[in-house]
Amino acid sequence: MRTQLAIILLGRTVLNMPSRLVYPFLPAIARGLGVSLPLATQVVSLRVAAGLTAPLLGPLSDRFGRRRIMEFGLVLFALAGMALAGLGSWHLTGSGTIAAAAVAFVLYGLAKAVYDPAVLAYLGDSVPYAQRARAIGLSEMSWSAAWLLGVPATGFLMERLGWRAPWTVLVLLGALGAGLTRLGLPAARRPAELWQGRQLVSSVLRTWGSLLRRRKVVVVLTTTLLLMAAVEVPFIVYGVWLETTFGLSLSALGLASIVVGLAEAAGELGTTVFTDRLGKRRSVLLGLIGLTVSLFLLPWMARLGLVPALVGVVLMMLTFEFALVSFLPLVSEVAPDARGALLSFNFTAASVGRLGAALVSSWLWRWQSIALQAWVGGVLALIAAMALALGMREY
Fold first, then answer.
1. Pairwise CA distance, residues 395 & 388, whole Å
2. Residue 364 maps to which CATH number?
3. Which of helix, strand or coil describes residue 13?
4. Is the model's pLDDT at 322 over the cut of 90?
5. Cα-atom radius of gyration of the chain, to the nearest Å?
6. Number of domains present in the structure of the chain
7. In a 10 Å sphere around its CB, with 0-12 CB exposed, 13-18 middle and 19+ buried, how is residue 251 labelled?
8. What is the pLDDT of residues 226-273, one digit of tens each?
9. Residues in Cβ contact with 226 at an 8 Å cutoff, skipping those fewer than 6 apart
10. How far is CA 367 from CA 83, 242, 273, 373, in A?
């Protein structure tokens, strides 16, 4: 299983990099596209909007097999990178450049919508529930790895070679991930065992209806939506907040972001060590309460200077990551009979939360006060904790 986890970690790290890069380098992307910051926010948020297709695409892993769908997701990812890297050679201007960038970010979103539910379903098929938090926690190290490796490297490449340079590297990494997935991952389940003799579309629709009638599924989707929105509202303006408030350069933003990656890594490692022992539900509640407190404290810490502000961001990301990664193994066991479908629904709930938060955050940033974003996020995290506490028990 170690080899499989290593391949999954590589593939997820590569796919997570675009999601990591847009936060600190959103102003640079806006300047590269020649558009305003609000418009650039809308363009990059298309990757989140594309996640709304997950209920259609995610169940495909139940039908065609996890590994095949993971490969397809990495191929889509490479195509997205080619679209962004090729903007300069296509000599596009104005609306043409924006349209091409929009297509690229949609492809990134589709790649995530295909790949992530398939990976989590693969681990759900392969790893017993009692040890699943450890396996999923190790795979979720991809988020911190993408931040720690991708953000500093992107700052370096953008300053020296332009804002499109990192996307060329991602094309190569996506192709490498697809090849390793094909060669190194055994199939966790044969496609013939799933949905045999049924029509694909009707099977998906029946699965939707069955899942949405289950109370635990509704609780899961609600908690995921609120959790993702809680952190996205303040974090999407993370880069512009530090740039405008503390005057950081692109390289300095990349280096400052290392602490965020370390915080995420600590949260993910904490999941591998504690969640199976404490219990998944209890761990999620601890993370949500910690996230609520850290968000309410963030504005006060930001007023004390750059270092306290970064400490506040670290606390926010550590508690968020611990809550999220502890929640995934719990979600994976809610509907074992339709694991891929439920995980795709959960991915969509996360996308809805992030997309709505991006729109709200862009509107709130008109006042250029991180306090507004943090307080809204804190309220959302508190509601998520209440929904989980009242609506679900541990298995």
1. 14
2. 1.20.1250.20
3. helix
4. yes
5. 20
6. 1
7. middle
8. 999 999 999 888 778 887 888 777 667 767 777 877 888 898 899 999
9. 353, 380, 381, 383, 384, 387
10. 34, 15, 41, 10
